[in-house]
Task: structure prediction
Amino acid sequence: MDCIFCEIIRGSIPSQKVFENEAVYAFRDIKPCAPVHILIVPKAHIASADEINADNADAVRDVFLAIPEIAKAAGLTNGYRIVTNIGEDGGQTVKHLHFHLLGGQKFAEKLV
Ligand code: 5GP
Ligand code: ZN
Result:
């Protein structure tokens, strides 16, 4: 399967890794949208949050358990945003579930 994030997890495409455990990999976004922009991905290939089910939901748990540690290591003591884009209308460009960790600034726009 042709998945750029699976290749990053495998190490066949280089990345700036900031965190890794048995289930989760996190690395700096190649085109940062904020002073801190980290992508947090489950190692299991899941296409998007729309593909979450009872059998693979542990991947989401594992990602969210890692988030506080990743945010702390990135120096985000005053808050941050977690964003996941889903499908065409959601603006998802890479079809491997990932969570954008954005921080290091106060976000002016409020989508929700
Ligand atoms: P999406 O648009 O699917 O929510 O987010 C995909 C993100 O992956 C984008 O922010 C994009 O900059 C990032 N990205 C795409 N290809 C690469 C890559 O090869 N390396 C890294 N580090 N980030 C990538
Ligand atoms: Zn993948």
Observations:
- The pocket of guanosine-5'-monophosphate (ligand 1) is lined by residues 4, 13, 15, 27-31, 39, 85, 91-94 (CB under 6 Å).
- Strands lie at 17-20, 24-28, 36-42, 81-83, 99-103.
